[in-house]
Amino acid sequence: MNRFIFATLLALSLNACTHAAPEPGLADKLVNAALPWQDQPFRVGKAEQCMNWTREVLVAACGERFRMLETQAPWDKHLLGADDKLLPEHADSLAADEFGQKIENPAQLQAGDLVFFKNTYGNWAEGVITHVGIALGDGTYIHRMTSNQGLVKIEPVPVEDFAAGIRLNDTLCQ
């Protein structure tokens, strides 16, 4: 092998070693943690588990910090009753500007965005966030269905129920 070819191959291999693939971003981590759940059960027989499933995905992707992270100022707070408690298992518990960029148009959702829906069940004031899932970026999202069947499904984003999305700050992910 002549010296020029050897030097070129050596330089290319050294360059490949020092320029590893970038660490996946928060969006990739969320989607990769969510997709294996497709068509799998999550807490069968227990209703209202969408945020608990979403938190499981967030914890798997980004660590324990997401287990109890919650806002005291969700976007829908003005619609809640005086006795309504703000809790981590509520769909609106991460629906706040403090966690990232609010997405108000469902067409602007990207893979990894949390997507919130209003008035999907219950007797709540118009506009109260009652469901959450994770956008997949192609007009679909993955979520734990509210029904007691408890299956995680990929479905089109129901724009008629869309409240907002949030593109979480990468700094939230460890």
UniProtKB/TrEMBL annotation:
GO terms for molecular function: cysteine-type peptidase activity. PANTHER family: MUREIN DD-ENDOPEPTIDASE MEPH-RELATED. Residues 1-20 form the signal peptide. It comes from the Bacteria. This is NlpC/P60 domain-containing protein. Residues 97-149 form the NlpC/P60 domain. Belongs to the peptidase C40 family. Keywords: Hydrolase, Protease, Signal, Thiol protease. The keyword Hydrolase applies. GO terms for biological process: proteolysis.
